[in-house]
Amino acid sequence: MKNSVKYQKRYFLPDGENTDWLKADAPSHAPVWCSVDLRDGNQALVEPMGVEAKKEFFRMLTELGFKEIEIGFPAANETEFEFVRALIRENLIPDDVNIQVLTPAREPLICRTFEAIKGAKNVTVHLYSCVSHEQCKQVYGGGMSQAKELAVRGATCIKELAEKADCGNIRFEYSMESFTTADPKFSLEVCNAVLEVWQPTKEKKAIIDLAATVETCLPHVFASLVEYIRKNLAYREGVILSVHPHNDRGSAVAASEMALLAGAERIEGTLFGNGERTGNVDLVTLALNMYSHGVDPKLNLENLPYAASVYSCLTGMKIPPRQPYAGELVFAAFSGTHQDAIAKGMRHREEQLAAGEEPVWSVPYLPVDPRDLGREYERDVIRINSQSGKSGVGYVLERAYALTLPSMLKRDFSVAVKRASEKKSRELKPEELYALFVKTYVENDAFVSIKDTEYRRLDGIEATVTLEDKQTGGVCAVKGRGNGRIDAVCNALGTYLKRDYTVNGYEQHMLTEGSSSKAISYLSIRADGRSYWGVGIHDDATTASVRALCAAVNNMLCFSEE
């Protein structure tokens, strides 16, 4: 691209070796999660939420297990202020949840913030200021000394107001705006100056938050910056090191994971990554990435579709269908190859469980068990369209309707499924798949239907079949002999129709258990060099087989008419 010359790196590498994080392969435990949906996420909405919607969102966040929630910027406007007051006044904050309020390092706004939090039991006052040279110069018109002085004045103001505040436990947080475009030596200098004002202890900690306000560097550079700050912070035992990644480069999740390896203990982000520009880091993805490695994320995501629907309803934001874990299609397999691997993997796991084993999750193409997140195999995993194969078709019918189709019948039916899906130009739902199966193999009586059968034992079995000829409307009784009941009926139909065919496939199983169970029979006949299938369902196993034979014969006659 011709204009690339006007761009260059906008970050600084820290001094010294800051690569200890490379020695770890994955986070071993969950960080402290802080949702900023009600502040950072809300300000990014086309139509920000009102007080009642924010209450509902706050309630959902507590249900999901968040213990730290940034609820707003109370000095920004009356809605933000009133929401904070409403949560406190109406006693809507659980005792184990710490609310967080944001304020810039300006005394009048800090004072207004303390007015908002009167009566709060557990609250974090989150102070922020800019440490980026380019932003300080271009936006605030000042130099670096003024930037440091502003942060120290803000920290001092917060400390003095906290000593007089009508609140319970107050914790301090300092966040460096645009940390990723700042000189890390200056960032560290400002942090330590703020900490010198607050003098946190192991018993009363403060939070230092490294905000990638705009993501400008690769994830490994961000991790090195985090490690540099961690190694050189003053009052280290009294500090919780937090990160606040954004997603401008599409790397927020990777940057957050590497930051945890580098020593970050806390992460600020939003559900599904909502935020300004390309969004904040997606906390759901981060948490479930941990879960997929056997680490308990300490969040309640067992009913992810519910959380996603509430989120979309309150924010008006749509979750992309391929969003990790939460998207409608993330577990969906349309490809026949993928469906076959998943179906076989699921059966292998079921065999292991039946044998009393406790296998780790290893089903091909599924990084986590969809059921753990409130998803259904039948509707969310194997989905059927014109790209699907016989394994997927068989899997859906087995899971949703307890039909265990023979392999050759799966192959035969998959042709009909592809044809139907192509005609509709869309996927087929499980109920549509079943309806097509019934129409194709169970209810086909276009040429003949059997009304009654009687058997008697002679030299083998003689069957008297009362059948209706659908072409003429006539009803007649025909006889046939064979070495069994089905063979006898088969010969009777062949005699009447003057057609030669043989039974070349037959399987049967019970659809339900107990006294009300039904038998389902799958039967194939061969004529003129190809096979035709029929399916019968009845309380009586023999009657089910006779119905399957009749349906197969009708399919043969239908094919002959084409």
Describe the structure in brief.
The protein has 562 residues and is α/β, with parallel strands linked by helices.
Polypeptide structure, described:
By secondary structure, the chain is of the alpha/beta class. The protein has three domains: about 30-315, Alpha-Beta Barrel (TIM Barrel), CATH 3.20.20.70; about 335-440, no CATH class; about 450-560, Alpha-isopropylmalate synthase LeuA, regulatory domain (Double Stranded RNA Binding Domain, 2-Layer Sandwich), CATH 3.30.160. It has helices spanning about 35-45, 50-65, 80-90, 105-115, 135-140, 145-165, 185-200, 220-230, 250-260, 285-290, 305-315, 335-355, 375-380, 390-400, 405-425, 430-440, 485-495, 540-560; strands spanning about 30-35, 70, 100-105, 120-130, 170-175, 205-210, 240-245, 265-270, 450-460, 460-470, 475-480, 500-510, 520-525, 530-540. The strands form three sheets. It has an eight-stranded parallel β-barrel with strand order 1-2-3-4-5-6-7-8, surrounded by seven helices. Strands 9-10-11 form a three-stranded antiparallel sheet. Strands 12-13-14 form a three-stranded antiparallel sheet. A hairpin with a 2-residue loop joins strand 13 (about 520-525) and strand 14 (about 530-540). Helix 2 (about 50-65) crosses helix 3 (about 80-90) and helix 12 crosses helix 14. The longest helix has 21 residues, at about 145-165. The model has no long low-confidence stretch (mean pLDDT about 90).
